[in-house]
């Protein structure tokens, strides 16, 4: 008998081999972003990719399947750093879709654990649902003693594919059987059966630190209806999940997942960053917690970025940002000030890259993304900390000892300062923090976000839902004109029998060639003609399962149930098609030039232009954009065929087609593909309209590229006639510029360079003249300085060209007079400008230039301020300069006399 697996790689391979030998097909894992399932933020379980199969919505790839699924869960983020909690983990799973059931699942789990892993059978326990006598019998069949089988109620041993406490929720469900490993069999045997859970009930295993759950076998056999009834599913299914990290902990004889080979290389790098021998036991409790948090969070961030998530302020990007910043926060708590996340990412990729080669391929991008976020958060911490220090100073002056919750929330929400850090700094300064107020402000913001989201998304019209399914048959991929019947007329959200000339309405047709807005492409426009009238379609939308044509009657009247001819505006449709195919080509070209980390994040396709957002960390160099445009137009010139086909979602993804975050896909999807010979240049899941050959696009011209958010860029472009028009306008503009510069277009740059050189020469000459002017002005003012005790007071209106001249005059006066308060005014291009300056000895006596100049400017209807030694201000009415200076003289005498 071969040796049992020990390393995590060996465990992974052993699990796969065991189930492949038993007829299971190995399927690739989903990315951590569940593409095609917008209801979930992250892939959090191995079964997630099989929801359609379990629901009976599409056939399985095979009746028996095995996977190794990387997962991410947000529930335990705040606990990471202890000895057990993780956000990212790998789930080993075997699945049956109507094939085998409880007996085989239990027998094979037992065989793998005892024959392959060679675990001591006496240290294994199983839990079952209260009345699941079948599972009890099958566990007894394999040899598990009665006192190692524990019955538990629905709260503990039942699996639901939906939030079970939500009224009206429905979906597949069923009892499960969890397998536990006894970490300390030397303890009281009665403890295994009689241990009481937090709610006071006998709970069997699972609550104490003695037992570790290593596998869950879910027997998915029922469907719960909205009214709570449960009926049998058409097929009995198996869904299992075994955490690789926990199995490695058991097989390697460790007391924590962090002691396994999975984390050791990352922890070794983290301890080097902190500068303490964590693995040798020399770290303090705080250092140890920080090192584990740094290691886990950087590993999780590596996996998320590797699957296309980038740090941002919303959705998945916000969770990623939170994970990264929590790692940085704990690193700073133990004295780390140098960038480190890229180092830990390299260690994580070194450990995971063998099984997940995409991490190695994208290593440079992953490390850049982490470093950019670390640099950004460091700046945020500095700005937020200064803001907090100012707040503490104000509170201290007011005699307060508690930071208000709304102030703490502002620091968190606006300035990015973690509330933990606010609390820590406050405590060091003797302040408490109003936690209740903070959480109240946080919840208020969430409520506003929910309200706004509901408003933006709108609600499905119940009227449209009443129409049934016999409508909106879309034929627009092959036709731009179709005969149809008017199924419904909607005015103000209600059904109408008639709409007359000049009135706005929404029409639903039995059949339509009009493409409804979706996938970034705007809805079609055109006409709907009936025997009694003409309806101008100004927009087409999908709503409540219907395709809704929005517009107005421009001739006669339209009646419900009339026959109609629906005709799409060809100019509108062809422009949108050119630009939609153009987005696919540009997307593929960007991935070819910048790297496969580029993923489209959103798009807008109109007949006139296109734009789309994509993941990339820095500004795209001009040379790279030129290369992208050149590659895109090469594909246009080659006049490649644009093909589309319908296939299964899984088959499309496995064949390399790109899908997009947040989009929901059914079991059947449409793949738009551009090939050159046998090479696939672009393949995307897309429901939009496209040209038939790339040559129909004519030309693609990139107008601009810029930032949308951290890690997200936006590109805008035009195609076809719009590109031609744009380039002609640019050429015309260049010719006009050349004429104004009295040169040829080819020599414009040289002419501009010459003008800039001349401007620089004149600027330096102006600076020299200003210095001469300042020296002359200062010399004249020294003689007229007013003495107040040992100090001099200069209050004067001067003829200065700029604020710089005012500052230069003030500096010269302070240098000549040694102890002086200077108040100057000038009319600069029709606007009053004021400046006050005080020498250090006067500042030490309490003279404050900022306070004085603020009052001076107010006397002229303006405002300003500044430091005690130098301040400036402005106003609008030059006629009030003398009055303002009179006020300045009064204040100056008062300040120096005091």
TrEMBL record:
<dbReference type="InterPro" id="IPR018162">
    <property type="entry name" value="Ala-tRNA-ligase_IIc_anticod-bd"/>
</dbReference>
<dbReference type="InterPro" id="IPR018164">
    <property type="entry name" value="Ala-tRNA-synth_IIc_N"/>
</dbReference>
<feature type="coiled-coil region">
    <location>
        <begin position="745"/>
        <end position="779"/>
    </location>
</feature>
<keyword id="KW-0436">Ligase</keyword>
<dbReference type="InterPro" id="IPR003156">
    <property type="entry name" value="DHHA1_dom"/>
</dbReference>
<feature type="domain" description="Alanyl-transfer RNA synthetases family profile">
    <location>
        <begin position="6"/>
        <end position="729"/>
    </location>
</feature>
<dbReference type="InterPro" id="IPR002318">
    <property type="entry name" value="Ala-tRNA-lgiase_IIc"/>
</dbReference>
<dbReference type="InterPro" id="IPR045864">
    <property type="entry name" value="aa-tRNA-synth_II/BPL/LPL"/>
</dbReference>
<dbReference type="Pfam" id="PF01411">
    <property type="entry name" value="tRNA-synt_2c"/>
</dbReference>
<dbReference type="InterPro" id="IPR009000">
    <property type="entry name" value="Transl_B-barrel_sf"/>
</dbReference>
<feature type="binding site">
    <location>
        <position position="686"/>
    </location>
    <ligand>
        <name>Zn(2+)</name>
    </ligand>
</feature>
<comment type="function">
    <text>Catalyzes the attachment of alanine to tRNA(Ala) in a two-step reaction: alanine is first activated by ATP to form Ala-AMP and then transferred to the acceptor end of tRNA(Ala). Also edits incorrectly charged Ser-tRNA(Ala) and Gly-tRNA(Ala) via its editing domain.</text>
</comment>
<feature type="binding site">
    <location>
        <position position="580"/>
    </location>
    <ligand>
        <name>Zn(2+)</name>
    </ligand>
</feature>
<keyword id="KW-0067">ATP-binding</keyword>
<keyword id="KW-0547">Nucleotide-binding</keyword>
<feature type="binding site">
    <location>
        <position position="584"/>
    </location>
    <ligand>
        <name>Zn(2+)</name>
    </ligand>
</feature>
<keyword id="KW-0175">Coiled coil</keyword>
<keyword id="KW-0862">Zinc</keyword>
<protein>
    <recommendedName>
        <fullName>Alanine--tRNA ligase</fullName>
        <ecNumber>6.1.1.7</ecNumber>
    </recommendedName>
</protein>
<dbReference type="InterPro" id="IPR012947">
    <property type="entry name" value="tRNA_SAD"/>
</dbReference>
<comment type="similarity">
    <text>Belongs to the class-II aminoacyl-tRNA synthetase family.</text>
</comment>
<keyword id="KW-0479">Metal-binding</keyword>
<dbReference type="InterPro" id="IPR050058">
    <property type="entry name" value="Ala-tRNA_ligase"/>
</dbReference>
<dbReference type="InterPro" id="IPR023033">
    <property type="entry name" value="Ala_tRNA_ligase_euk/bac"/>
</dbReference>
<keyword id="KW-0648">Protein biosynthesis</keyword>
<dbReference type="GO" id="GO:0004813">
    <property type="term" value="F:alanine-tRNA ligase activity"/>
</dbReference>
<keyword id="KW-0963">Cytoplasm</keyword>
<dbReference type="InterPro" id="IPR018163">
    <property type="entry name" value="Thr/Ala-tRNA-synth_IIc_edit"/>
</dbReference>
<dbReference type="Pfam" id="PF02272">
    <property type="entry name" value="DHHA1"/>
</dbReference>
<keyword id="KW-0820">tRNA-binding</keyword>
<keyword id="KW-0694">RNA-binding</keyword>
<keyword id="KW-0030">Aminoacyl-tRNA synthetase</keyword>
<dbReference type="Pfam" id="PF07973">
    <property type="entry name" value="tRNA_SAD"/>
</dbReference>
<feature type="binding site">
    <location>
        <position position="690"/>
    </location>
    <ligand>
        <name>Zn(2+)</name>
    </ligand>
</feature>
<dbReference type="InterPro" id="IPR018165">
    <property type="entry name" value="Ala-tRNA-synth_IIc_core"/>
</dbReference>
């Amino acid at each position: 008998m071969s040796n049992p697996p020990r390393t995590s790689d060996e465990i992974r391979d052993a699990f796969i081999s065991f189930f492949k030998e038993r007829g299971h097909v190995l399927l690739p894992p989903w990315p951590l972003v569940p593409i095609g399932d917008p209801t979930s933020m992250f892939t959090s379980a191995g079964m997630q990719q099989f929801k359609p199969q379990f629901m009976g919505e599409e056939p399985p790839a095979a009746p028996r399947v095995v996977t190794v699924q990387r997962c991410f869960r947000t529930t335990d983020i705040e606990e990471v750093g202890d000895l057990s909690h993780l956000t990212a983990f790998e789930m080993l799973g075997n699945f049956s879709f109507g094939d085998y059931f409880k007996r085989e699942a239990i027998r094979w789990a037992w065989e793998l654990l005892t024959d392959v892993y060679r675990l001591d059978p006496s240290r294994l326990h199983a839990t079952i649902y209260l009345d699941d006598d079948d599972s009890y019998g099958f566990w007894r069949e394999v040899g598990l003693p009665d006192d190692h089988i524990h019955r538990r109620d629905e709260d503990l041993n039942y699996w639901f594919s939906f939030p079970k406490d939500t009224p009206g929720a429905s979906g597949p469900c069923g009892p499960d059987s969890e397998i536990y490993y006894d970490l300390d069999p030397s303890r009281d045997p009665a403890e295994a059966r009689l241990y009481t859970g937090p709610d006071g009930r006998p709970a069997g295993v699972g609550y104490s630190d003695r037992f570790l759950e290593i596998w869950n076998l879910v027997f998915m056999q029922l469907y719960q209806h909205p009214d709570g009834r449960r009926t049998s599913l058409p097929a009995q299914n198996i869904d299992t999940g075994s955490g690789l990290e926990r199995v490695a902990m058991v097989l390697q004889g460790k007391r924590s997942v962090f002691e396994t080979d999975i984390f050791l290389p990352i922890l070794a790098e983290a301890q080097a960053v902190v500068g303490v021998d964590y693995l040798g036991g020399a770290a303090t409790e705080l250092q140890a917690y920080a090192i584990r948090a740094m290691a886990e969070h950087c590993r999780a961030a590596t996996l998320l970025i590797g699957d296309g998530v980038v740090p941002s302020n919303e959705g998945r990007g916000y969770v990623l940002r939170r994970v990264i910043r929590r790692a940085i926060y704990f690193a700073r708590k133990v004295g780390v000030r140098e960038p480190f996340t890229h180092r830990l990412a390299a260690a994580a990729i070194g450990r995971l890259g063998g099984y997940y080669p995409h991490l190695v391929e994208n290593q440079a991008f992953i490390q850049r993304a982490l470093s950019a976020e670390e640099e950004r958060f460091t700046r945020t911490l500095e700005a937020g900390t200064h803001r907090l220090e100012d707040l503490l100073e104000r509170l201290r002056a007011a005699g307060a000892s508690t930071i208000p919750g709304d102030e703490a929330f502002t620091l968190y929400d606006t300035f990015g300062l973690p509330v933990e850090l606010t609390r820590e700094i406050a405590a060091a300064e003797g302040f408490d923090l109003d936690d209740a107020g903070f959480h109240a402000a946080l919840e208020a913001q969430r409520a506003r976000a929910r309200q706004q989201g509901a408003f933006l998304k709108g609600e499905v019209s119940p009227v449209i839902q009443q129409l049934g399914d016999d409508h909106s048959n879309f034929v627009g991929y092959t036709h731009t004109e179709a005969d149809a019947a008017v199924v419904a007329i909607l005015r103000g959200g209600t059904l109408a029998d008639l709409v007359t000339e000049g009135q706005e309405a929404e029409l639903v047709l039995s059949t339509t060639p009009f493409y409804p807005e979706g996938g970034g492409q705007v809805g079609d426009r055109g006409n709907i003609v009936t025997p009694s009238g003409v309806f101008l379609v100004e927009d087409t939308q999908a709503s409540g399962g219907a395709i809704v044509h929005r517009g107005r009657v421009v001739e006669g009247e339209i009646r419900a149930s009339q026959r109609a001819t629906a005709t799409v505006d060809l100019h509108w449709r062809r422009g949108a098609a050119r630009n939609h195919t153009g987005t696919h080509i540009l997307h593929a070209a960007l991935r070819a030039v910048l790297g496969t980390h580029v993923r489209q994040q959103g798009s807008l396709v109109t007949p006139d232009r296109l734009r789309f957002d994509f993941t990339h960390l820095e500004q795209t160099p001009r040379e790279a954009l030129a290369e992208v445009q050149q590659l895109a137009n090469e594909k246009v010139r080659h006049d490649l065929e644009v093909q589309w086909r319908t296939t299964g979602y899984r088959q499309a993804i496995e064949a390399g087609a790109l899908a997009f975050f947040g989009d929901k896909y059914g079991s059947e999807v449409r793949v738009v593909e551009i090939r050159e010979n046998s090479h696939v240049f672009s393949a995307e899941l897309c429901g939009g309209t496209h040209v038939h050959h790339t040559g129909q696009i004519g030309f693609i011209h990139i107008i601009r590229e810029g930032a949308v958010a951290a890690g997200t860029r936006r590109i805008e472009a035009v195609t076809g006639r719009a590109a031609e028009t744009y380039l002609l306008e640019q050429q015309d503009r260049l010719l006009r510029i050349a004429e104004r510069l009295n040169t040829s277009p080819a020599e414009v740059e040289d002419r501009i360079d010459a003008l800039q050189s001349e401007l620089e020469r004149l600027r330096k000459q102006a600076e020299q003249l200003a210095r001469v002017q300042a020296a002359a002005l200062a010399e004249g003012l020294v003689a007229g300085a007013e003495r107040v005790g040992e100090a001099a007071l200069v209050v004067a209106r001067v003829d200065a060209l700029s604020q710089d001249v005012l500052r230069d005059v003030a500096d010269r006066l302070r240098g000549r007079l040694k102890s002086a308060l200077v108040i100057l005014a000038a009319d600069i291009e029709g606007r009053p400008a004021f400046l006050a300056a005080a020498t250090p000895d006067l500042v030490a006596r309490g003279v404050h230039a900022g306070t004085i100049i603020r009052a001076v400017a107010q006397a002229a209807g303006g405002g300003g301020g500044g430091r005690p030694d130098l301040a400036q201000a402005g106003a609008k009415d030059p006629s009030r300069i003398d009055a303002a200076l009179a006020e300045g003289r009064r204040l100056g005498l008062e300040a120096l006399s005091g």
